Amino acid sequence: MKFLFTLAALAASADAHYIFNILFVNGQRQGGEYSYVRRNTNAYNPVFPDILDKNDLRCNVGAKPGNTATFTVKAGDKIGFKVFNNELIEHPGPGFVYMSKAPGSVKDYDGSGDWFKVYETGLCRGQANSDGNWCSYNKDRLEFTIPAKTPPGEYLVRIEHIGLHEGHKNRAQFYMTCAQLNIEGPGGGTPGPLAKIPGIYQANNPGIAYNKWTSSPAPYVMPGPKVWDGN
């Protein structure tokens, strides 16, 4: 049985990589690849736990303030981030969305302020050793609804998926990008808990250094802060 799990792990490591670079709003595509998402320099390749204490954890390698356009949405809109080139999320693991309000124009913001988590998705059913039990597995996007009481303003919106197929070797794979959104609405909420990036994860967190390749894997524990309750 252990031999079969090892073969499966090797096969999984060869699966396609992915990057979230296409914005959808209320089911409608907005622009093309990287129209509203900061362009990273490592293409669709993952980063590994050695990035967890670096500023590149915010928006990915090379994704800096610059000329990326900002799209205006409303609190309560459904936002999606689609994988490039009609690819799919082909690794098991959790997905997250974090947001950080820019102090001014988001195109000039480096993400050094406070972040809060607005969405997470993990297991939908059963145990972690079956890839299809992960809610995001073989999907082409991550989607969430902007909380209705989100304070209006310009935000970096950080989309992330963590591939856990090599977590047992301390090589979890991180796929993330940042979109630039101007959020309109009445506000009224107080986002939290707040955190800095880097600082949301440690390499030895049980949800990162995770072994799914057993016949009875441990219950999965989401890494990072709790999701804002919207109030």
UniProtKB/TrEMBL annotation:
Pfam hit, one: AA9
Compartment(s): Secreted
Boundaries of every Auxiliary Activity family 9 catalytic domain copy: 17-215
GO cellular component: extracellular region
GO molecular function: hydrolase activity; metal ion binding; monooxygenase activity
Main location group: secreted
Protein keywords: Carbohydrate metabolism, Cellulose degradation, Copper, Disulfide bond, Hydrolase, Metal-binding, Monooxygenase, Oxidoreductase, Polysaccharide degradation, Secreted, Signal
Catalytic activities: [(1->4)-beta-D-glucosyl]n+m + reduced acceptor + O2 = 4-dehydro-beta-D-glucosyl-[(1->4)-beta-D-glucosyl]n-1 + [(1->4)-beta-D-glucosyl]m + acceptor + H2O
Signal sequence bounds: 1-16
Enzyme class: oxidoreductase
Cofactor: Cu(2+)
Biological processes, Gene Ontology terms: cellulose catabolic process
Record-listed E.C. numbers: 1.14.99.56
PANTHER family documented for this protein: ENDO-BETA-1,4-GLUCANASE D (PTHR33353:SF2), PUTATIVE (AFU_ORTHOLOGUE AFUA_1G12560)-RELATED (PTHR33353)
Similarity comment text for this entry: Belongs to the polysaccharide monooxygenase AA9 family.
Name of the protein in its database record: lytic cellulose monooxygenase (C4-dehydrogenating)
Species assigned in the record: Cercophora newfieldiana
